[in-house]
Design goal:
Layout (H helix, E strand, L loop, with lengths): L1 H49 L4 H8 L8 H9 L2 H17 L2 H6 L2 H5 L5 H33 L8 H26 L6 H21 L10 H7 L7 H4 L6 H25 L7
Helix pairs in contact: 1-3, 1-4, 1-7, 4-7, 4-8, 4-9, 7-8, 7-12, 8-9, 8-12, 9-10
Length: about 280
């Protein structure tokens, strides 16, 4: 058990810089979203009431914000910004690519596995730290928003559970990103390739999801397929604070997809031939 605990500590030590910086950024974005909502809420509501729909209001409409949006709906429109998605994706890609291929590239995999640690235990430590990191990131975003609500004035302040629910869904969005990056890392021997492939898949999925939201493509034959394939369709913050019907199904889909990739990564890593440290 001690070698496994030491391995977990090693992974935490290596990833603490990325984790702390990302958590601080999400905390700041959580607070900033409340501040922006507080500063613009009255102006947006007056514009909606007057019927003068500008580009900002049309954008809100496409995100699912209703005719008389609540404070939390306006906040969640901001949480759809690519900054939020990018930050959790960075964590997933960085930890997935570092798990195996980075150690092989550095020539340290032989040393790690020469200790009384099995391949399964080694990869389990990597996955454990990655999931714990996502929990920290989700908590940082929720705490930043909760503190922001306390120090800013909103017409109808959102409850803590509403903010936690959306933060958890955003953190879960990184699970499949981590999963397929880890899967590629377990069969490669250089870190740049899993990072590049994981980033490309993530960017393609996000671009497809955004394009499918354009009104001009509403009746396109390929739109339903993009909605099914893109993992970003399983993150709808506005819906999560209104009907809240998609939280369980969406988190289940994201966790299931990520879990399937992780299980396959365990199987491939257990069977692959590792290059000797020259």
């Amino acid at each position: 058990m001690k070698p496994f605990v030491a391995l977990v500590r090693k992974v935490i030590h290596e990833s603490r810089g990325t984790l702390l910086l990302t958590a601080a950024a999400l905390f700041g974005l959580g607070w900033l979203s409340v501040y922006i909502t507080s500063s613009n809420e009255s102006q947006i509501l007056k514009t909606i009431a007057s019927g003068e729909l500008g580009e900002r209001i049309e954008w809100l409409r496409r995100l699912g914000v209703g005719k008389a949006p609540t404070s939390v709906e306006l906040m969640m429109a901001f949480w759809n910004h690519p900054f939020f998605v990018t930050l959790v994706a960075i964590w997933g890609i960085s930890r997935g690519s570092a798990a195996v291929s980075a150690e092989i590239e550095r020539g340290t995999m032989d040393l790690l596995l020469s200790r009384p640690v099995s391949r399964t235990a080694y990869l389990l430590a990597q996955v454990l730290v990655a999931v714990l990191g996502l929990s920290v990131l989700g908590a940082a975003l929720a705490v930043g928003a909760i503190i922001g609500v306390h120090y800013n004035t909103l017409r109808v302040p959102p409850g803590a559970w509403e903010l936690i629910r959306v933060s958890a869904n955003l953190a879960a969005l990184a699970l499949p990103i981590y999963g397929y990056t880890l899967l590629i890392s377990t069969v490669d021997h250089v870190r740049w390739r899993p990072t590049w492939i994981g980033s490309t898949l993530t960017l393609a999925g996000f671009i497809g999801h955004v394009i499918a939201r354009f009104p001009v493509f509403a009746e396109s034959w390929w739109k339903p397929w993009v909605d099914r394939v893109s993992i970003f369709s399983a993150y709808d913050p506005v819906e999560l604070v209104t009907k809240a019907e998609t939280f369980g199904p969406h988190v289940g889909i994201l966790a299931g997809t990520g879990g399937a990739c992780v299980v396959l990564a365990f199987l491939l890593f257990a069977r692959r031939d590792l290059p000797a440290n020259g």
